[in-house]
Specification:
Strand order of the largest sheet: 1-2
Number of domains: 2
Order of helices and strands: HEEHEEH
Number of strands: 4
Helix content: 25-40%
Distance between the termini: 77 Å
Number of helices: 3
Shape: elongated
Radius of gyration: 25 Å
Length: 123
């Protein structure tokens, strides 16, 4: 229990130092008992150097107690919320459909309407 309190204290201190430098921050699940933080930070381009310097300062401050690993620049996947509604029936041209296929859209694999594909094949 004491270890968890210490980890939470480190996490809070680190996030409090970094949060003023970011537009948004997301914490994710940690992996293993030794990981303190698994977080994503949305940093403006003009603050990237400042953010990097703050990470280096934190690394020096925490010394051997905490090992910092971070990567970037990455696409902002953690800051996109995608909601897929599986309860609303899919409709195509006003008719309910259970499958979305090129045929149901009247498109071939190249995105051309099937009737155009048939015309091109017959010429």
């Amino acid at each position: 229990m004491a270890l968890e309190k210490e980890k939470e204290s480190y996490k809070e201190g680190i996030l409090n130092c970094l949060s003023p430098l970011v537009l948004e921050m997301r914490t994710n699940n940690t992996y293993g008992e030794r990981m303190i933080i698994n977080a994503a930070f949305l940093v403006e381009d003009n603050r990237e150097v400042e953010f990097d310097q703050k990470i280096q300062e934190l690394d020096a401050e925490y010394g051997e107690r905490v090992k910092f690993k971070y990567v970037g620049t990455l696409p902002p996947f953690n800051f996109v919320n995608l909601i897929i509604d599986t309860l609303t029936p899919l409709t195509i041209n006003g008719e309910r459909s259970s499958a979305l296929t090129p045929e149901s859209l009247d498109l071939n694999r190249d995105g051309l309407p099937f009737d155009k594909l048939k015309e091109n094949a017959s010429t």
